[in-house]
Amino acid sequence: MPVAFSLRKVVAGAALALAAAACQSNSSSSETGAAATPTGATANSPLTAGTWRGVLALQGQQLPFLFDVATDGGRPTVTLRNGEERLKLDEITTAGDSTTIKLGVFDAALVVRAAGEGKLTGAWVKYDAGKPYRVPLTATTATAETPLFAGDAPDKSVFGDLKSGALFSTTFREDDGKTYPAVGFFTQDSVHSDRISGTFLTTTGDYRYLSGNLVKLADGSEHLRLSTFDGSHGFLFDGKLTKPGNINQLSGDFYSGLTGHETWTATLDPKAKLPDANALTGMKPGQKKLDFQFPNIEGGTLSINDPKYKGKVVVVQLLGSWCPNCMDETNFLAPWYAQNKQRGVEIIGLGYERASDDQASALRKLGKMKQRLNVGYDLALAGTADKDAAGKTLPQIQKVLAFPTTIFIDKKGEVRKIHTGFSGPGTGQYYEQEKADFNKTIDQLLAE
């Protein structure tokens, strides 16, 4: 995924951003010392059915997100809403006056308690790094009509041609001055004219489902504000319209987690595109094959030279259980493998985990991911969640630029293509092209 922070630097500033540091504690327990019990229709649970608007307070900003509370079999469920995405959370426990909502496959949680009628207070807690990582959280009941960001809606003429979707050539600038290109793709909601959804694509992935609205502030300035919260990432984009009344040019800030910050500029450009994701890295001169052996999640070892893979087309996925873009790719690969493995194709998932120094913990996280996403292909623990370190575990490759990275190997065991990043379902047409290119590559290798 775009890596800015969690993937670009694997810095805890962002994360689904997608990553960041957290309270280092046993993520299987709640935040309180009292005995945790599953919540159902319990009187002490602060979760009441309906739509809620949560707000994360980070870097002096407010990052809003919507979530729904419902019951399933008498137990509460929480569903995070990011644009069209729905992330159902069902690991919920109550201890004392606190309720802990585990955030899916990620080693993180929302810990909340009642703060009056229709109000919650608490924190977003990350468990997968050495330093404490807690972001204050408040939430209030809302409706489907509640906009994410407060403010007056600008005149409808501001929106231009966003109804059918529009591309923006975008440049992000890190605080150290380094820049990287991106493509913004945004669409105006057909019902609520001030609401916008879309994402930014980069050479290493996308910023997943972003949603928000255009607002006019008291000083007359007009802003496009977008956010996402997927349990691992908390992203906030604030872009000011350079010319009032015209969305063709924007500039602003990107906030990610506790400390991640970048600036960005975007210009409407129907021809905007990124460099070829299949040409960003490759094998070192003279190298044609990978050679690795890592511990697998079953307690044994996995090697690319195992007989199971001989004479087959093999896809090697570099991933992390902490990485939302990796989960997007896994959600595609898992059912694809179930439907296609009989064709002579194998997939190997190589996990690069934040807790790789604690092998047992890292393997448990991969195991949880395997179970929750119904992964039928082989998984192994390859190393730590750092691109440079990952490159050292696969010394035949020039460099690892992102998680995920996907390596295609032919029936002779030779690497034929290395694809950096993954354009997930939040990218719309780009996701469809991603899947089509994957299938085309597999079909070509199987036909040889």
UniProtKB/TrEMBL annotation:
<feature type="domain" description="Thioredoxin">
    <location>
        <begin position="283"/>
        <end position="447"/>
    </location>
</feature>
<protein>
    <submittedName>
        <fullName>Peroxiredoxin</fullName>
    </submittedName>
</protein>
<dbReference type="InterPro" id="IPR013740">
    <property type="entry name" value="Redoxin"/>
</dbReference>
<dbReference type="GO" id="GO:0016491">
    <property type="term" value="F:oxidoreductase activity"/>
</dbReference>
<keyword id="KW-0732">Signal</keyword>
<feature type="signal peptide">
    <location>
        <begin position="1"/>
        <end position="22"/>
    </location>
</feature>
<dbReference type="InterPro" id="IPR050553">
    <property type="entry name" value="Thioredoxin_ResA/DsbE_sf"/>
</dbReference>
<dbReference type="InterPro" id="IPR036249">
    <property type="entry name" value="Thioredoxin-like_sf"/>
</dbReference>
<dbReference type="InterPro" id="IPR013766">
    <property type="entry name" value="Thioredoxin_domain"/>
</dbReference>
<dbReference type="Pfam" id="PF08534">
    <property type="entry name" value="Redoxin"/>
</dbReference>
